[in-house]
Every structure is written in C-alpha cells, then in structure tokens.
Write a structure and sequence with these properties.
The chain has about 270 residues and is α/β, with parallel strands linked by helices. Helices cover about 45% and strands about 20% of the residues. Strands 6-7-8-5-9 form a five-stranded antiparallel β-sheet. A hairpin with a 2-residue loop joins strand 6 and strand 7.
C-alpha cells in the first residue's frame, strides 16, 4: 500500500478526501494530513510518504515545494489536492499507476526510482511534442506530478531534426527501435545550458525533436540568444551523431514558442 500525505488548510478539500472510504482498494493507506508547510515538512521527516497532495495558499505551497527539493523528497510526486470526491478518485487511479511504475523492480534492467521517473518524464514529453496533450492545465499538472524542473510559463525552443526522407529510414538504419535510439541520443543532445534543460524525443512517426525549456527558478537568456545557444548545441550534437551513431542528421526547422503550453492541442483542433 502506498502512503499519501494530504497538505491543506481548506475544509472542502479535507471533506473530499474524508469522503473516500475505500483507500485500500485504490492501493493507498488512509492519508496522513497536515495543514501547513511546516506541519508537512515535520510529517515527511518522521513518516514516509510516497506522494504529496497539496492545496495551500501560494506562499505556503512554494515553501513546501522548496523544502521538498532536498535529496530525500525530490522524487515524491506532487498533485493538486481536489475538492470533490469524484476528482480525488480519478487522481488516485492516475497516481497509483505512476507509483506502480516508479517503484517496480525490473530484474533484467538497472533499476532506480529516479531512472523510472526520468523514463516517465520522457514519455510525457513525447506525448506533448506529438500533440497528444489536450490542455495547458494537463501539462502543468503532469509536470508537477513528475517533479519536472521545466518551467512551462516561459519561452522555449523546439527544433525538428531532419533525417533522410526515405520511408522507414530509422527502422532500416537503426535496428533497435525508436526507444533505444532516443536513449542513445539523450547522451549526446541532453544537457543543461544557460538555465535551460534540453531533451531529445524520437517519435513513433520517425520524427526527431529537440526541446529546450527554461528551468524553474533559473535565469534564462532572451529569446534570440536562447535560440542561438540551442542551435549551436544541436549542430554540435548532430556532428557527434554522425560520428558515433553513423546517422545523417541536421536541423530542419526552429520554432520559438511563447511557452510550453503552446504545444497543447485542444480537442476542437482535430
């Protein structure tokens, strides 16, 4: 059973969680509760929690999230504590799926909670870049749940990397699948530069993208300088891909986004 800490000073949120009576069926013990950042920090210090649900005033929430950046708690998923029983139940199903994955022990692979959380983040960003995320709110929510350091509210850069345009190029020239190719490319393209986090995504459609997004509480360059830094890094990385992976790759397009939320594709857009 997973352990959840509920941190709120809102009676309606507490009532919504109290209305849930079948916590064990959801995979959780009855949540511990705290009413402030200080109470939550004390609870986390003395009692294990696999995840934290928060509904606090902005300053209190910021204080708690800052405390949770320490090595002991930086992987604990954070979710917005809902104020209806129906939403609490939906949130717990989603949270239990994530915790089951990050706590799973894959005997044939090197395992760590941090590794599995990183994989979950990469999968999420592939969905965002693929246009499969329907709202800015969902992007914001998942970034918190996955403890991403990406700041979705500031300008970011999205590069499309061109490969030879013959159909099935990747499957013909890279026999280990898109996932394995992405892992190999992360070691080349992945970086933290000038307050930005860069990550590469290989889509099932045989498209490759590089996303550069400012990190929370880090200064980042202005848009023009940000684009220059990312293009320079991508050019260098493409050269290394040719050298180490024997794959022709070059920058096809550069798109400056006002923020990460620009990648949300609402249902009405289909």
């Amino acid at each position: 059973m997973y352990k959840l800490l509920l941190v709120t000073d809102k009676p309606e949120v507490r009532a919504a969680f109290d209305a849930v009576t079948d916590w064990e069926r959801l995979g959780f013990k009855q949540p511990r509760t705290a009413a402030s950042a200080d109470e939550a920090t004390d609870s986390l210090t003395h009692h294990h929690a696999d995840a934290v649900a928060i509904a606090l005033p902005a300053e209190e929430e910021k204080k708690l999230l800052s405390a949770m950046e320490c090595p002991h708690w930086h992987l604990r998923p954070v979710l917005d504590a809902a104020d209806t029983k129906e939403q609490v139940l939906k949130d717990m199903v989603e949270l239990e799926l994530l915790l089951s994955r990050t706590h799973a022990d894959y005997s044939n692979d090197p395992y760590s909670e941090e590794t599995m959380m990183q994989l979950a983040r990469h999968e999420f960003f592939r969905r965002v870049i693929s246009g499969k995320t329907r709202s800015p709110e969902r992007i914001r929510r998942y970034l918190r749940l996955l403890r991403s350091r990406m700041d979705p509210t500031r300008p970011c850069v999205l590069l499309r990397l061109a490969i030879p345009d013959d159909d099935g190029y990747l499957s013909a020239h890279w026999h280990y699948g898109a996932d394995r190719l992405e892992v190999a490319m992360r070691n080349i393209f992945g970086a933290e530069l000038s307050g930005m986090r860069l990550l590469v995504s290989v889509l099932d459609s045989e498209e490759i993208y590089l996303l550069a997004c400012p990190m929370l509480e880090h200064e980042a360059p202005e848009a023009g300088e940000m684009e220059r830094i990312v293009v320079e890094h991508a050019t260098w990385a493409c050269q290394h891909v040719r050298e180490y992976l024997d794959m022709e790759l070059e920058i096809d397009s550069v798109r400056m986004l006002s923020c990460l939320y620009d990648l949300a594709v609402p249902e009405t857009a289909e």
